Amino acid sequence: MFDKIGVGLAILYIFSSVVHYVEPRNIRTVPKSDDGAKCGYSSCHPTKPNMLNVHLIAHTHDDVGWLKTVDQYYYGSETRIQKAGVQYIIDSVVESLLRDPEKRFIYVESAFFFKWWKEQTSEMQDQVRMLVNEGRLEFIGGAWSMNDEATTHYQSVIDQFAWGLKQLNDTFGECGRPRVGWQIDPFGHSREMASMFAQMGFDGMFFGRLDYQDKDERLMTQKAEMIWHGSANLGDKSDLFSGALYNNYQAPDGFCFDILCSDQPIIDGKHSPDNNVKERVNTFLDYVKIQSIYYRTNNIIITMGGDFTYQAAQVYYKNLDKLIRYANERQANGSNINLLYSTPSCYLKSLHDAGISWPTKSDDFFPYASDPHAYWTGYFTSRPTLKRYERDGNHFLQVCKQLSALAPKRSEEFDPHLTFLRETMGIMQHHDAVTGTEKEKVALDYAKRMSVALRACSTNIRNVLNQFSTGPVSEPTSQRPFEFKTCTLLNISSCATSESNSPFALTLYNPLAHTTKEYVRVPVADYKYIVLDPTGKSLTTQVVPVPKPVAAIKHRNSIAEYELVFLASNLPAMGYKTYYIQRDDSSPVNIKPTALPKRESSYTVIENENIKLTFDTNGFLSEVTADGMTRMISQEFLYYEGATGNNAEFLNRSSGAYIFRPKDNNIRFATDHVTIEVYKGSLVEEVHQKFNDWISQVVRVYKQSTYAEFEWLVGPIPIDDEIGKEVITRFKSDIKSEGVFFTDSNGREMIKRQRNHRDTWNVKLQETVAGNYYPITTKIALEDTIARMAILTDRAQGGSSLEDGALELMVHRRLLKDDAFGVGEALNETEFGEGLIARGKTHLFVGQSYLRADVSLKAIERLVQLETLLPSWKFFSNMESYTSDQWLSSFTNTYTGISLVLPKSVHLLTLEPWHDNELLVRFEHILEKDEDSRYSKYVQFNIKDVLSAFNIENIRETTLDGNAWLDEHRRMEFVPEPEDEAYEAYATISESANGGHLLSGAKPMLGVEYSKERLGPGELGAQSNRLKRSANAGHFKLHKRRQQHVDEDSINVSLKTDDRAKYLIELSPMEIRTFVVYLAK
Ligand SMILES: [Zn+2]
Question: What are the start-end ranges of the E strands in 879-946?
Fold first, then answer.
């Protein structure tokens, strides 16, 4: 059925001439069986046009780790923590589906599904294939996990969708391809996620959690379903139909028929004294009628399921069967309500077929609040070291993908190792993994998984780098001269090879598609070292002592007292350079670094040709000079005291893993005096600051750099006063930002924020700090007409601008109470028997906001953002068996996989092995359209020139996930309502629904008494700032469908037919293009 509609409506890509140079192997599709696959929109049960159709969605929400580890959830162990076993769920659902073709089920998390799938017999697999082909079992979402949207980076989100969808595609073909996004549990929703869904070809997305005030407003104005503009740069190809579910993702109160629930079954024994059919059906239909008031069409969606439901599927299904039967029997007596087994995509199709137009939205759904004192902004920072480790995992995954693809000779174990890391990173994106909202034991399990997966992939890398460095010799990797070890503790200046071996080799692998330079720091035991580059040239070096607070970390097991610094320049694109580093007592090059004499009475300055930082006599940063102006900019550490309470009512909410709630708005200073040491040399100038016993920092400025680096060390956060603390770094400037600041969305486009404001409703904030916090994946900034200040982070953090000119980032938190959203533990992380210590970096940019002579500051920030996300990876090898001459003459010490270096505005986002003799490649324009007059322009290049290391036979463009041909893919199109007609066209209702459901977090607030702080009309709840009209929900205005149109961005390449033109790629600002590249065998 969709084909008929789809062709009429879909965006028409004039694209077919791109293909068929040689016959490409198609992305696998399951051959149509004789009776024909009847999946997707054509498998939907029919609705009744004159009735209210109630789409019942049988579903289970299976967290890929939360209170239990991934495996504990899968196998169902640790039942005392939670009665949840995913293997039983899938077993049981499949059995029920096989028994009755009427039933439907959706499954979401590919990480769990494929674990189950691999354990099945081929007979069972065939039966499941049949269920999928008939649309009875439908995959929704389909990524490896249901990723968080606040703390995840877009690169990792795309990767984990691509991987999940690839398994579905390889296993089930077209019928396994999800059409609808299903983000029912993540704690707020990002605009970038909407954009990615759209670019992956999804027709729509449903979600569960939005601010309770926003939800109230949207329900009252029938705007819970909308067209979301996912990008300010990409036009309507980033538009996504998005719907907020009425009751998060739970069944209506009293209708959870699962064995996990205690609600009454439907008792229909004719003579049973317990017969409750009439009462139960009445209650359900009453609920249905209320819900339907808030939505526009004569269709509503009701989720019948919850966390780990359907372990005994027949129990749920049996009662659903009865509910449907007895409710629909009333149609004979005039009921106009029709219940049916459905799926989110069938519901979406009904919305589409209603032929009406829809409201639009351009901002995002952050921050999420579930009640007046529960702002889910704590998890933006929770578990800072796990958040950083996850980012390291992404970095290493990209290196591993590239090198596995570039390998001259591939080994058998390459694919399983790479897959292991891919899947582990997929799990890490889950909304209770990288978010830090899992139990401590589960967090440790995630970290352990990552550690094992990183080790697996490092064997691929060692193999490939040895092939490049030493030639294709046949002995096993372990006997090769280079170890290519990763030192995982470089962030506390610890590395066994560099400390203990001399000489040693340092190989820097640059995963970017352009040449880079970077300052390298290597932990060493002494200060007399020489560094040779691959031409044998001795480089300028500088030695800086390891900061005292770092050296003093108890569990640091290292003899390194210094860091050896040098500039690695011309690091080849997607390639490496190896340096030979040797201790040399005779060398006069390095002298023992000593701190500059203390001058209590005067200011301290560190500087280079671009930027100068001044510190006052108390040791605090006080001024920054850059771009020909001096601005007052201070930086300090402060902390909030976490609120504590019994969580029995809103006012008594504790700050916890999810929730950030400061006890009061009196922020505490870490200190009023900072002790400092200053080190200056030819490459870097540093101020080592010690704020107190548990906060210290190094502020540094490298030669030629346009920014300053702040490397902070926080912890163990003291709790002997029995007060939980949430630590922030705050940069205060004299920039007149007037309440406005900018935060990134998953590391991509910037979104404008205004203090105490939401774009689409009049917000009432009872939490003026927490309610102004936003997720910072990579960047926060503010500016006035003259000056601009931007900060890059090295991991996801919460951040805000609570005063004009000031930016703050929460770096670490340690709390003593649970916030009662289910995790059941205080966020009190410990390591080595003490509170957790975290270390990280922020980069500070200050300069002219608009009148910069050369490249704009925004463009520089973008480039640095990329280079700090994916710097070179450091590999260490003992070289004690080789003199420098032998090293120079025996090995290949530079390599590049790219012959045409890409323009700096282009990022080779992905290069990885895909199917046999295929690569998956993504190119990305990293600037927004108005960020820089030069760098924001369209760019054009030839793929063959870029990837000359490969013998390319053909390419074909795909959707963003790499699993569907772009030229063949069609999306449902929804019609936006004209802005000025928005309120004329629809009825709105003037009363809020009975408030309870609007206020509940889906993870239950234990024993909460809503009534104590229920919102009266016009108080905290929704208030439309527009005129409300009286109820008349029956009148919908129909808008004509839009005409077919050509996506203008897509034409340029396709109309040219010669071979060269085929490989010519053009990118507009923020555009990502994805290709399957076919290699000659
Ligand atoms: Zn969940």
Answer: 894-896, 906-913, 918-925, 939-942
pLDDT class for 477, splitting at 50, 70, 90? low
Residue 509 contacts residue 574 (beta carbons within 8 Å): no
307 CA from centroid of ligand 1 (Å):
7
In order of their start, the domains of the chain are 40-142+178-365 (3.20.110.10), 384-590+871-901 (2.60.40.1180)
Count other C-beta atoms under 10 Å from residue 604's C-beta: 21
Angle at 418 between CA 415 and CA 423, to 5 degrees: 115
Residues in Cβ contact with 780 at an 8 Å cutoff, skipping those fewer than 6 apart: 741, 742, 743, 744, 774, 790, 791, 793, 799, 801, 807, 809
Q: State phi, psi for 89 to the nearest 5 degrees.
A: -60, -50
Would you name the residues annotated as active-site residues? 185
Helix (H), strand (E) at residue 207: strand 204-207
Tokens 């498998």 belong to residue = 43
pLDDT in tens, 225-275: 999 999 999 999 999 999 999 999 999 999 999 999 999 999 999 999 999
Asked if residue 503 has a cis previous peptide bond (ω within 30° of 0), the answer is yes
pLDDT at 29: 43
Q: 148: CA distance to ligand 1 center in Å?
A: 9
Averaged pLDDT of the chain? 89
940 CA → ligand 1 middle, Å: 42
Largest CA distance in the chain: 102
Angstrom distance (rounded) from CA 225 to CA 232: 20
Length of the chain: 1081
Distance from Cα 941 to the centre of ligand 1, integer Å: 42
Burial readout 484-510 (b: 16 or more C-beta within 10 A, e: otherwise) = bbbbeebbbbbbbbbbebbbbbbbbbb
Query: What is the tens place of the pLDDT at every residue in 32-68?
Result: 443 456 899 999 999 999 999 999 999 999 999 999 9
Is the pLDDT reported for residue 3 higher than 90? no
Q: What is the pLDDT of residue 1052?
A: 38
Radius of gyration of the chain (CA): 29
